[in-house]
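Deviations from the work plan: none for this task. Representative record:
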Amino acid sequence: MTRQQHLDDLFAFLRIPSISTDSARRDDLQRCASWLAEKFTVSGLRAKLHQTPGHPVVTARNRHRAGRRTVLIYGHYDVQPVDPLTLWRSDPFEPALGAGGVITARGATDNKGQILAHLLGAAESIAADGDLPLNVIFLVEGEEEIGSPHLAEFLRAHRADLACDVVAISDTGMIEPGRGTLTYGLRGIACLEVTVSGPDKDLHSGLFGGAVANPLTVIARLVATLHDAGGRVAISGFYDDVAPLAQWERDAWSKLPLTDTGLLKLTGAPALAPEQGYTALECTWGRPTAELNGLHGGYQGEGSKTVIPADAHAKLSFRLVPDQQPGKILSLAAAHLRKHCPSGVTLTVTPGHSGAAYLLDPAAPFAQAARRALTLAFPGKAPALVREGGSIPIVSDFKKILGVDTLLLGLALPDARIHSPNETFTVENFEAGIRLNQILLRELAR
Ligand code: BES
Ligand code: ZN
């Protein structure tokens, strides 16, 4: 296959608006899954499209032979929403190839470019050698960006078919262009929605203001109790199980080319606001957080409207570090909110999706194989060993349900703007990813 054919495939994949959280896109997710299954098939793999109560799962495998190792390659074909659309310089679902081989589209890096690099790496190996050097199972889902609500059940139901020795994923970051990166830790996540209800309808704030509690004011005060003045999470018990950062990690991270100044630049914020005693990098890779992701209620339109809103809503998520249990954190958070909620309103706390943090020994045998592959694919520089702040909730289930470790060999550059407007992927990384995946399969087979 030529570079152009690789790109044509990627562009076709990116044109399908597979936003998993948007119920109006259901058919697009089906179409995306079918496109992928077809791509696996023409590449010489046996593909299957599995319906779930949500969006389909696509699996594909080569002919497995006894006595060979088995690797499961996981990725996702769903993408994040695109809003605010006005900030995009081009249509998010019409990939644009710009100067320096930069591709702009939603999902370019997260995760279509990366999972397609896996697929095309396998396709190239099959085209060259007639088969892959080991048993391979692809597992590509359409619900990662909404917390993989049906995937753990899928793993349990297909445990025998998915039996493997190790999992490989390209859905994490690369420390800098041209430097292979093995991510040996991810933060976990636990999500929560909060509703504060007051009157049974929006009320005139002149006629009733002062007589009843304003749900929007209550929720604002409530979410403000989540942190203390120093920015630490104020939920009692929140830090009880937090594994402290090891000195060797802090030393190693301080030598990485990711400085606070560099990080600040990526954010576009006026200043960093790290937890006291930690660098910004340590905060994102190794410290837990409570984040307010959305807060709404009341009148949002032009001008003013003098009402006491009937209800107010907040979306919260917690990023978790090793040893913190998502279920326990959600109960602690709910108890905290109940304790701080005044009378005169009704508080509803609804837990959302969650997943535990992940940590791998970077010296374990399969991790060594991944490091060899990264060294060969990105020559001249030793691979970086990093933890990251993002979450891939199913990784802890791979361990729990399939009993295997996961190798995270990501291709997301620091400025790829995943989840933001104008997400990018570079042709250079796409091609490097295709090579990396061919090498990885060889190294894992050794
Ligand atoms: N690919 C990301 C996770 C990621 C990105 C990890 C960069 C490390 C470095 C993944 O698609 C993602 O965004 N996950 C969500 C999970 C959530 C919706 C359950 C996240 O981290 O917010
Ligand atoms: Zn994502």
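The chain is about 35% helix and 20% strand.
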